[in-house]
Specification:
Length: about 750
Amino acid sequence: MATRTSVIGFPRIGKNRELKFASEKYFKAEISAAELEKTAAELRAYGWKKQSDAGITFIPSNDFSFYDNVLDTAFLLGAVPARYKALGLSPLETYFAAAHGYQGSAGDVKALPMKKWFNTNYHYIVPELSDNIKLSVADQNKAVTEFNEAKTLGIKTVPTVIGAYTFLHLATYTGQKKAGDFATELVNAYVQLAMSLSTAGAEWISIAEPALVFDVSAEEKALFASIYKDLISKLHKEANIKIILQTYFGDIRDVYNEVCELGFDAIGLDFVEGKKTLELVESGFPKDTFLIAGIVNGKNIWRADYQKKNELLVKLAVKVEEQNIVIGTSCSLLHVPYTTTSEEKLSSDILAHFAYAEEKIVELKEIASGDEKALEANKKLFASERVAKDAAVQKALAEISESDFVRKPDFAEREKIQHKTFKLPLFPTTTIGSFPQTSEVRANRAAYKKGTISREQYVEFNQKKIAECIKLQEELGLDVLVHGEFERNDMVEYFGSQLNGYLFTQNAWVQSYGTRCVKPPVVWGDVSRNNPMTVEWSVFAQSQTKKIMKGMLTGPVTILNWSFPREDISLKEQTQQIALAIREEVLDLEKNGIKIIQIDEAALREKLPLRRSDWHTEYLDWAIPAFRLVHSKVLPQTQIHTHMCYSEFNDIIRDIDAMDADVITFEASRADLKILDALKEANFRTEVGPGVYDIHSARVPSVEEITDALKKMLDKVQKEKLWVNPDCGLKTRGNEETIASLKNLVAAAKELRANV
Ligand code: GLN
Ligand code: ZN
């Protein structure tokens, strides 16, 4: 019987987002560093106590972070770029300077870049390694402090830290030195760290190496092996500490044999996302080593099916001594909310199916102990069908045929028809959808939600804003207009809240980056559309202008990727259901006179599998067709736009073209326009609007700057295919800078028209 349990990481933002609010106050100098530290200590204590009360064996420490664990690791190892140290600020202020930039009396430095953490919606800070950085760990460090803090509370923890291989994998290198050149120094730094922990009384250290779930090249494998050969023996001999190698977000097929041979004391593997993990373990597992079996999903909010988990454990016990099997989470619980007890509005029938972090640690314990009563209750929960199938949705799905994925006539034919119909000038100008969401816009929505104003009042206000927004766009001389999205708080929630099959939580906040949290909606049942969701607004907007008004929708892949998906049916099926619902909206918009419809796929790239070999079979092969399903039935003269909030699609460029949209706008202003070469090389046929300025900053781009960017684009893109637009929606910007920027954008387009 497996009796031990392990958690990789616990949420830290606070059950009521205490850390978010305290940090924001601290940034505004409304509270002191000591007060912020106090909140942090309370949150850490809360998590440890919950885990200790649940009887978890391996409780992590150092999983707490004021901003991000990768940034913590950089600071722990001494990998702090000189420009931050040069500010001469306190350690905490220096840390925040690197996390989100600093502008003040001590100087002016930008933040380190931020990137998506594997296939999650969490973002990490990218470490920067220059040639003259000296890696080393102080005796008194964050890991030791937090270990001691837990010890004082009577809780023995396992300090956890991002491993050397993953750290080197994620870092950027500014000089001549490459990953391998830092290996020796880094090994010594980890030894210093382990010694400090061992001195403080730690028996174990957990080293997280999620980068092992990517495709690992021969060279990378050699680097990994050389680091750990050295490190493991030193940790055992010099630091006298036991080592967990913790992996997550997939299987480690490329290095499994090496991992087994290196001599770790425990190996943590992901059985939820790791398709091959079971197969790997069945091929053999080292003796006298703990297997931390990550079987409780750390990423989704559904209860675990104990029977299925037990069946898996039986299989594992063939190769692993039973007493060495530890029941664990598949990844850090950072990616799920705190507790379902904070949900007051959902019925207990529904909540019975949910397990957030605090419920998940109880699940670990119940599975490990083989608790009969718990098993019975769990069996009952899974015995009945959670939701009845929606017959109409099932019928619609069954009726989809090949032709539903093919828009006719083909692209070239449509392009001709559309150019004739719209008679737009060369380099048509447009925006991505939203206009500044001023506080009055937000107040109007909030008042309507609270019920303090009537629907008429709410609509009237928004219509006034739409009319103003249109007038502004006409004055600016934009060619294709938008209504401004004043009725939307969020591009997914707006649709989710109107679709059947979706549930909204009250408190299911998950950290996205720093103090920013998101509250993904839950796909509960089959998804369908009851009523038009956007038609009223778009029709009103079109009635206010002779110019063309773009309808504005969110695409099915993005809606699903930013939700907690179901686990009882495939992602493909869920996406198709959403696609059919959005398709109804598309056709309704068209029927009501909307001639251009934009379907945003802001998050398409997000769930691209971590292994290249899985990209198509596991994802693109259904995600791209799902987008086509949405628009395949429109008339040839209806123009379909899509938008993506990034430009890293060089490697999936043909798939993007295969979405068969007529126009795509995307972020390009911050990238070095490399994407343009890729477009040219791929013979990209979709018309393109690479964003000509960065809406993430308050800066107003000059006409010259925009013209320059456009000229560069024209080297690579046919002039008939180039659109001119900002790189994303304007909702986070102020009116003044928006107007100034758009004025320059239109002027630049006009100048270019006059000169080609
Ligand atoms: N249409 C949306 C907007 O303009 C797109 C947002 C996004 O790409 N994230 O706000
Ligand atoms: Zn965007």
